[in-house]
Amino acid sequence: MQQEVIRGTDSSGLDLQFEEGLLNRFESFRKANGKSAMIVLKIDKDTRTVGIEEELVDVDLEDFREDLPDTKPKYILYSFEIKRADGRLQVPLVLIYYTPHSAATNLSMLYSSAKNQLGRFFNVNKMIELRNADDLTTEFLVSQLGMR
């Protein structure tokens, strides 16, 4: 049973469905305590259904990026602590659209077409495109967020 359907309102025209309970799990994720947390999302290419592939807490980015596949796109919702130069602690939420160069074209197009809808669904202000898994570092994310 599907929870919600978002009809494509942008130029993609792509209709996505979201697994039942996905938004509730996301809200629990946002409230979770930990220095970093991640939800890895996948899209079923046949049903166009977005679901959770994996949830991680206190993520080590180096370990995670080593496990990223070279041929399959992913969406990664990532929340992590950043200590600003003035001592303030911030916990941004970013949507990382990972599409490796060697991913199948049809999968890359599907994931690319859905990224704006996912950003709206999860109310994420910052999306970061990542083509090379080696670039997935805290320094890279901080620079992309303009929080140097």
UniProtKB/TrEMBL annotation:
Protein name: Glia maturation factor beta
PANTHER family registered for this protein in UniProt: GLIA MATURATION FACTOR, GLIAL FACTOR NATURATION FACTOR
Entry similarity comment: Belongs to the actin-binding proteins ADF family. GMF subfamily.
ADF-H domain location: 13-146
InterPro entries: ADF-H (IPR002108), ADF-H/Gelsolin-like_dom_sf (IPR029006), GMF (IPR011171)
Gene3D superfamilies: Severin
